[in-house]
Amino acid sequence: MSTEIIRVPDIGGATDVEVIEISIKVGDIIEVDQSVIVLETDKASMDVPSSMAGKVKSISVKEGDKVSEGDEVLVIEVEGVEASAPEAVKETSAAAPAPAAAPVAAKSSSEAKVSVPDIGGATDVEVIEICVSEGDMVEEGDSIIVLETDKASMDIPSPFTGKIGKISIKVGDTVSEGADILMITTESSETPASTEATAPVESAAPAAESTATPVSGGVESVNVPDIGGAEGVEVIEVAVAAGDKVKEGDSIIVLETDKASMEIPAPKSGTVKSVSINVGDKVSEGHPVLELEVEGSVAVAAPVAEKAAPTASAAPQASVAKAAAPVDQSAVLSTPSTKVHAGPAVRMLARELGVGLTLVRATGPRGRITKEDLHAYVKAAVQKAESTSSGVGTTGGAGLPTVPDQDFSKFGDIEVVKMSKIQRLTAQNMVRNALVVPQVTQFDKADITDLEAFRKGLKGEMEKQGVKMTPLPFLIKAVAQAMVANPSFNVSLMADGESYVQKGYVHIGIAVDSPIGLVVPVLRDVDKKSVVQIAKEANELIKKALDKQLKPIDMQGGCFTISSLGAIGGTGFTPIVNCPEVGILGVSKADIEPRWNGKEFEPRTMLPLCLSYDHRAVNGGDAGRFMTYLNSLLSDVRRLSL
């Protein structure tokens, strides 16, 4: 057992740097590379890591102190290092170099240029933050700059571990792929063979560190693939983090439009080097997702890779130690901050926790966010979620009212089933539409006796052409013509409440009960297509919906929706308007009813129709004319050809 002194390392020539955080306390067991203190200059903050593992005996600095390179930070008790006397620890002469510390590796430095990586083809992207300054030490994966487009912001990570040299850009500059960012000095170490026997700290590591692991097949950028032409799709989940191992096909992120969600899989197996997006970002095809070190052949892994794990485990210990402290809801800002000041270590922890820093209240020097601020924010958020989830009349994630929780288990056996993303989104949209849209539902019945006779007469001919001819294509065609004749149904209200958009196209959505929930694929330019064309396209979209193959573009741009219960049954229902559309037609099961023809009752096939509309855009007269025109088309199939 021996004691060693941890000193301030090379910090780029900076002097009188302020200590803003002490990350450990006397008695702690710390690992190699674990952060012990955090320093801050007027431009950046930096973590000072421990150069060896052991037990903290004493701490020589406190928050607010000014330090420079070589100043004593703490004294650590190291196991396995023998010295002839306590004074041997402080010896600096060449007479006793081996017992004083672990062998010093011979280091060679090289300077590398860091450029803007692939950013999805975007050009002239603005630099909104520079996270480092010249002289800073950074780890691979630390954020060095933040870029912002008109749709999203992205952190650019450091590809190497080393010291920051000359920085070529400044806040406000616009950059594109390949633009120079900065120079970074990297160091490679080679421990001399003659000192291997005197390295007790390294020899204490498990032998498993040298097990065979895949060698990198190269680092590749993974971008958002073809998502059907959708723009600005929200990232609702990031399923991986830097350092994670992924297999080809594993989900890495989940995207969600207003109608569907989709998982983006890893194109290859490998190790995630850095992640370029966060939850809440808006992305499109080609947007960078992450850097992936692709697996190659098998070789012996470097033992250094195992040193990062103890540092990550320190965070839970710190949070457990503070768990008993009262949680202050003031840790959460009421409005997002326009300027966020935080060091690389805090930013990395925030990414691991999935926390956006704009709502975290800063208590550190000069308005900087500390790790304690981050933990306080997370605790406050958890406490708030727990308190609201058990309350009566709470609200859902979208701020919409929900039913209070009840204990149903006291009445019998139950099973709690998690709703799918589509089901949750549909529920939120239905509540929102029902609350926001002042809607009216009008009921009628269409005489489709002749239409059904015509359709059944075509059935054999259509089947030879591979077309399944149901009543739905006729309904879609009739609705499209009714919208052309009654353009008040082909509008969307503007958010200002003072104007509306009159559409010059007719796209019809059809509600489909798919395995993942209710989806509404859209047929385009229906008014310009024949019933046969509509039948083919509708059948293709329905098949894609049932096979869970719909893309976001397949469910966008609708002007009006048809929801048909068909053979399921029922005589009528009140469909909810699919905002921002202003009308929806509900169709129930057709039935034979007696109808008076002026002389006698005769059997006629009657189709129940339920027209719901947004009363802000459509009045009763418009709806009456729409329904009358629609009935005339369905009652006389010849009119569909006009």
Kindly describe this structure.
Residues 81-107, 189-214, 297-326 and 389-398 have low confidence and may be disordered. The protein folds into 4 domains: 2-104, Beta Barrel (OB fold (Dihydrolipoamide Acetyltransferase, E2P)), CATH 2.40.50.100; 108-191 and 211-300, RNA polymerase II/Efflux pump adaptor protein, barrel-sandwich hybrid domain (OB fold (Dihydrolipoamide Acetyltransferase, E2P), Beta Barrel); 325-389, E3-binding domain (Dihydrolipoamide Transferase, Irregular); 423-641, Chloramphenicol Acetyltransferase (2-Layer Sandwich). The chain has 10 helices and 35 strands. Helix 8 packs across helix 9 (531-546) and helix 8 (471-485) packs across helix 10 (620-635). Strand 26 (491-493) and strand 27 (500-502) form a beta hairpin. It is elongated. By secondary structure, the chain is an alpha+beta fold. Strands 25, 28, 31, 32, 33, 34 and 35 form a 7-stranded mixed sheet that branches. It has a 4-stranded antiparallel sheet with strand order 1-8-6-3, with no helix packed on it. The chain has a 4-stranded antiparallel sheet with strand order 5-4-2-7, with no helix packed on it. The protein starts with a strand and ends in a 7-residue tail after the last helix.
Can you summarize the main beta sheet? Answer: 7 strands, mixed
Please report the number of helical segments: 10
Please identify the top-level CATH class of the largest domain.
Answer: Alpha Beta
Count every beta strand, where a strand is a DSSP E run of 2 or more residues.
Answer: 35
Q: Segments where pLDDT lies below 50 for 5+ residues?
A: 81-107, 189-214, 297-326, 389-398
The tally of domains stands at 4
Catalytic activity: N(6)-[(R)-dihydrolipoyl]-L-lysyl-[protein] + acetyl-CoA = N(6)-[(R)-S(8)-acetyldihydrolipoyl]-L-lysyl-[protein] + CoA
Family: Belongs to the 2-oxoacid dehydrogenase family.
Enzyme class: transferase
Protein name: Acetyltransferase component of pyruvate dehydrogenase complex
